[in-house]
Write a structure and sequence with these properties.
223 residues; mainly alpha; Arc Repressor Mutant, subunit A; 2 domains; 12 helices; transcription cis-regulatory region binding; TetR family transcriptional regulator
Length: 223
C-alpha cells in the first residue's frame, strides 16, 4: 500500500557559513517549533525529538544545526527573544519624558509584540515567574538593564521633576506595569472565557490598562 506522507528531512551535507535556501528554512522551522514547545510545555519538559517532529525534520537535523538543547535555547534567546525586547527598549528611549508617555509606549509596544508573537506571555510565566524557570537568570542579567532599569530610572527622573506622583515607588511602578500587561495576556483564554467576552481584544486590554494607570501617575495638584 502506497502512502504520500512525506518523511522527515535528514541533515544536508555540512558546508561552511550560515545556511541558505531550504536549509535556512529548516533552521527557522526548528526555532519556531522550539519556541512553541518551550512556551506551552516548558523548557525542561521539551525534548529535541518532539521539537524535531513538530518542525517536520529528523532529530539528527537538530543536532546538525544546534548541537544540543542548551545551544538551541541560546539560539532562541539570541535570535527571537532578545531582538524583540531590544526593539521595545529602543522605542521607549524615543518616547517623551512624561510618565504617561513612558507607560503608553510600554503598553502599546507590548501589545504589538504579543499580537505578532503570542508565545511571549506563556513563556514569561513558565520560564521567568515560575520557580526554577530557565529564563530567570536571563531576565536578571540581560533583560533588566534593557527595560525595567530604563523605565525605573526615567520614572525616578520624572518624580524628581514633580511630574510623577511622589507617593509612588518608581521601581514598583515598573513591577505593576509589567504585571498589568504580560499577566493578562497570558491569562486571556481564562478571563475571556470566564466573562464570555471575546470582544475584549488586545487593543481593549491596552486601553484599559492605560486608563487604569493614568490617574495614579499624576502628581497632586497644588491647592
Amino acid at each position: 500500500m502506497s502512502t504520500n506522507r512525506k518523511a522527515p528531512s535528514s541533515p544536508p551535507s555540512r558546508t561552511p557559513g550560515r545556511p541558505g535556501g531550504e536549509t535556512a528554512a529548516q533552521r527557522e522551522r526548528l526555532l519556531d517549533a522550539a519556541l512553541n514547545a518551550f512556551s506551552h510545555k516548558g523548557i525542561a519538559a521539551s525534548s529535541l525529538r518532539g521539537i524535531a517532529s513538530e518542525a517536520g525534520v529528523t532529530p539528527a537535523l537538530v543536532n546538525y544545526y544546534f548541537g544540543n538543547k542548551t545551544k538551541l535555547l541560546a539560539a532562541v534567546v539570541e535570535e527571537r527573544l532578545l531582538p524583540l525586547l531590544m526593539n521595545l527598549a529602543q522605542g521607549l528611549r524615543q518616547v517623551g519624558d512624561q510618565p504617561i508617555e513612558l507607560v503608553g509606549g510600554f503598553i502599546q509596544g507590548m501589545r504589538r509584540i504579543v499580537q505578532a508573537h503570542p508565545w511571549l506571555p506563556p513563556l514569561w510565566v513558565r520560564e521567568v515567574l515560575c520557580e526554577g524557570g530557565g529564563l530567570r537568570e536571563l531576565l536578571m542579567s540581560r533583560v533588566a538593564p534593557l527595560i525595567p532599569h530604563l523605565l525605573a530610572e526615567r520614572f525616578a527622573a520624572a518624580q524628581r521633576r514633580g511630574a510623577l506622583n511622589p507617593d509612588l515607588e518608581p521601581r514598583l511602578l515598573v513591577v505593576s506595569l509589567i504585571g498589568l500587561t504580560l499577566f493578562p495576556y497570558a491569562a486571556a483564554p481564562i478571563w475571556r472565557g470566564l466573562f464570555d467576552a471575546p470582544e475584549l481584544d488586545d487593543e481593549a486590554l491596552a486601553r484599559h490598562t492605560l486608563v487604569l494607570l493614568e490617574r495614579g501617575l499624576e502628581a497632586p495638584r497644588a491647592t
